[in-house]
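JOB MANIFEST
job_type = single_chain_structure
chain_count = 1
residues = 100
[input]
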Amino acid sequence: MSDYLSRDDRAALEAEFDDLPVEAGTAADVSIVISVRLRGDELAAVERAASVAGVPLSTFIRQAALGAANPLDVRAASARAEAIQNEARKLIALLHGEVA
């Protein structure tokens, strides 16, 4: 006797499970791999920059791409930095017993 099921037997077994609910989750965040074509000298320059930054090549490229897609608002950042400096000066004055 064969250990294999006939087509009809297999279909009958599979049919038993057709109506059973299946719990399946969805991936919250799916990453996609892309490729970029660089000349040898371009690759060498990007590799050096990644090395100087202390990050892997792929991380460096990803950060550069995202930075270009979402550029920093320098004016807003400068204004925020100035506000933080002013608050820091006030705190230092309070620590030294000076009242502004």
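[summary]
The two ends are 97 Å apart (CA to CA).
The helical segments are 7-17, 40-53, 57-69, 74-95.
exit_status = 0
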